[in-house]
Amino acid sequence: MGSDIFGLAMLDYQNNNYKEDITTFSSVADNDTIPVPYLFREYQAMPTIEQKALQLCKGKVLDIGCGAGSHSLYLQNRGMDVTALDSSEGAIQTCALRGIKKRVHSDILDYNSEQFDTLLLLMNGIGIVGKLVNLGLYFTHLKSILKPKGQVLIDSSDIIYMFDPDEDGGYWIPDDKEYYGEVDFTMCYKDHKSESFSWLYADYNTLQRAAILNGFQCELITNGNHYDYLARLTVAAQ
Question: Which domain holds residue 34?
């Protein structure tokens, strides 16, 4: 678990060993921190778009990239059939310690054991695809584990605000990326450091175009407070 930064931090917090937060280094911003307690927040402390997504959940739910399991725990406490999935071993151990009954330690692309009525990807959940070019691969897989009339609930952010505007109303965007929402990250926690990885932030129009190209209908549910939004994907009628 040496590079399982989130898993190490979450287990420390769960086991009352919390002393420091996660430090992030990215290709688009100064160093930042992720407060570990925030990963354990209750419903009342969640952003409005997360609260809305949880209220829209129906049937069997798969919480993809569940982290510490805060969304899964809320749904489970409401009596819903929810499975928490994460590629982080520490995340799944944390979910177990928090009492989440159904847990899967797996990358989403490797998981095809069941179908679900709701696929939940929160906290910029679409970021797991890494790069824009991978959206088709992930959308195809999500369709394969989605029940008829099921839904995918996704939130993301348009990070265009992080780039300097020019005098013509455009933005100065580096030309070394296919899309400005592709961000490279490295994370540190205590004396552990992750390898560099890519994370995708997709503006709504880009997400909608990709969804339509891959056989989904895409609906904007609500905008958040800071360039973020919640979208719902459903399989388009043939």
Answer: 5-235
Find all residues with CB under 8 Å of 85, minimum gap 6, and list them: 62, 63, 64, 65, 66, 103, 104, 105, 106, 108, 111
Number of domains observed in the structure of the chain: 1
CB-count exposure of residue 97 (10 Å: 0-12, 13-18, 19+): middle
pTM of the model: 0.93
H helical segments located in 15-154 = 48-56, 70-77, 89-97, 135-144
Check which CATH number belongs to the domain holding 96 and give it.
3.40.50.150
Q: Using one digit for the tens of pLDDT, what is the confidence trace for 49-108?
A: 999 999 999 999 999 999 999 999 999 999 999 999 999 999 999 999 999 999 999 999
Contacts by 97-105, CB closer than 8 A, 24 or more apart: 97/11, 97/14, 97/15, 98/14, 98/68, 98/69, 98/73, 99/73, 100/66, 100/69, 100/72, 100/73, 100/76, 101/76
At 206-228, the pLDDT tens digits run 999 999 999 999 999 999 888 89
